[in-house]
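Because showing beats explaining, we let one protein speak, sequence and backbone structure tokens together, and leave readers to judge.
___
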Amino acid sequence: MTTEQLIAEIKKKKSFLCIGLDVDLNKIPQYLLKEDDPIFAFNKAIIDATHHLCVAYKPNTAFYEAYGIKGWQALEKTIKYLNKNHPEIFTIADAKRGDIGNTSTMYAKAFFEDLGFDSVTVAPYMGKDSVEPFLTFEDKHTILLALTSNQGAFDFQTKTVDGIELYKQVLKTSKSWQNSENLMYVVGATKAEYLADIRQIIPNSFLLVPGVGAQGGNLQEVCKYGMNKNIGLLINSSRGIIYASNDNNFAKAAANKALELQQQMAELI
């Protein structure tokens, strides 16, 4: 998917909502456990109920890898279902990969070619030769971890080196990498006060913003400092939407929560 297609979908739906598909078998409605593939059954119900309200879905691969081959097969079925039935929706493999040269190329092939995701999250710690292999894929996007929503982000990301915070060095340096126009960035919603400085460095890039909902991030604050002329934001909510209910009406409850966010977004666009 091109950036222009993503922007068009945002304008069409008046939404920049991303829904995280982080499936925990201990939290889904217990009757689904009788299904041959309870993970996919859960995801399909969520997608069917919310696809008109969001522009992106983000499965965190850990929630699939934890269940071995069956979990990976459920992830494959989920992305194939999305690509077949809702090709207009942007898909994010939240895998946080990144390794040197050939290994990164293989990671990229796994998510972009085999599974067919539009984007993948990547850790920048090993530098450009661990990221550039992802950037060579046409109409695919690499979402670089910049300033994350967890408390441990302060351990390294905001530390100053030669007078500049590390996350700012990551942002500035990444702009010099080959095919950097294919980069997006992760900035946590709980770090909204940093967004003004971030937009000074990367004014036009899309930001994936987790942390709205269960982690306490504020949508209005994020938009105040992070929105650009093309919106430039993908606001992710996972637990706050998909686990709104664990009863038989879980998909409807998820849709209601997604609608609340979509309506707030429509007012902000």
User: Anything to note?
Assistant: The beta strands are 17-20, 56-58, 90-97, 119-122, 141-147, 160-161, 164-165, 183-187, 207-209, 233-237. Residues 149 and 191 are 6 Å apart (CA to CA). Residues 250-268 form the longest helix (19 residues). The chain has a mean pLDDT of 94.
